[in-house]
Design brief:
269 residues, alpha/beta, two-stranded antiparallel sheet, 9 helices, binds methyl 2-azanylpyridine-4-carboxylate
Length: 269
């Protein structure tokens, strides 16, 4: 896969030279080019922003440097190649999830456009649709100062799904089998640490019991921290012990879905 990032702070992307993603680049599994938006300006001050039409606080990124930089990146490909995907990190985008990461990991080329200030002139997105598949993408419901940190997160989430990047592909398989639930808690040696014991079942050697305990911990955590995830959970084929675990958490199975019992307590524990 090839990734291009356009930013006014190319140094912000330096961490992508480290760890798993840095190794993937060294191994030739991932080509990553970072471009400085200011290299595509033509005025003496290398201006990238201006005041917003209609008034209001802050500055807006000028369209022309974006068109110049993105056209240069888009043109750098074989004539027969498909349009690259242009990802524009923004709190106003569609939500980036593990499913998005899997989708984007299938692409040959991704381009990330890091906005700063109040955003990029909207006409850039219209113009770019002629050269790219444009996807405004949000990491969640909060605001950052620029798209760079969001790109770091997305490139890591996508990059680790590329063949050969994660040393033990079983880690990926286990994640994808988690049914949209939160992960179970994990422990390592020593078994007693500062008077705290590792749950005894994990030392029992009973692999059936361990698997069931872990699953039930996933249910408990998800009910407590992310009850929204349980709305989509397929409960149709749950074994009796798992239904009981959910009943203890205040959930019944109705038509194959989990439904919070009306008389369940104020929290999910
Ligand atoms: C400037 O970009 C952002 O503020 C941003 C990008 C992606 N996701 C967010 N939640 C915010």
């Amino acid at each position: 896969m090839r990734i291009d990032v356009v930013s006014i702070f190319p140094d912000y992307l330096a961490p992508l030279e480290l760890s798993l993603i840095g190794k993937a680049r060294q191994d030739g599994l991932l080509e990553l080019n970072v471009h400085d938006l200011r290299d595509f300006t033509t005025d003496r001050h290398r201006t990238v922003d201006d005041t917003p039409y209609g008034g209001g606080a802050g500055m807006v990124m000028k369209p022309e440097p974006w068109a110049q930089s993105l056209a240069a990146v888009a043109a750098d490909r074989p004539a027969e190649a498909a349009k690259p995907v242009l990802i524009v990190p923004s709190p106003a985008g569609e939500r980036f999830t593990q499913a998005t990461a899997h989708e984007l990991a299938e692409e040959d080329r991704l381009v990330f456009a890091c906005g700063r200030y109040e955003g990029i002139d909207e006409r850039v997105m219209e113009w770019a649709a002629g050269h790219f598949t444009v996807r405004p993408v949000s990491l969640g419901d909060y605001v950052l100062n620029g798209g760079e940190v969001a790109v770091l997160a997305m490139v890591e989430a996508i990059g680790r799904l590329l063949p050969g990047v994660v040393g033990n592909p079983e880690s990926l398989v286990e994640e994808s089998h988690s049914d949209g639930l939160l992960e179970y808690p994990v422990y390592t040696k020593p078994s007693n640490w500062r008077d705290r014991e590792v749950p005894a079942v994990l030392l029992s050697g009973n692999h059936g019991k361990i698997a069931q305990w872990r699953r039930h911990e996933q249910y408990r955590r998800t009910a407590e921290r992310r009850p929204d995830l349980l709305e989509a959970f397929d409960a149709a084929k749950l074994p009796r012990a798992d239904r009981t675990a959910f009943a203890d958490l205040g959930y019944d199975v109705v038509d194959g879905y989990l439904v919070r019992r009306a008389d369940a307590g104020g929290d999910s524990g």
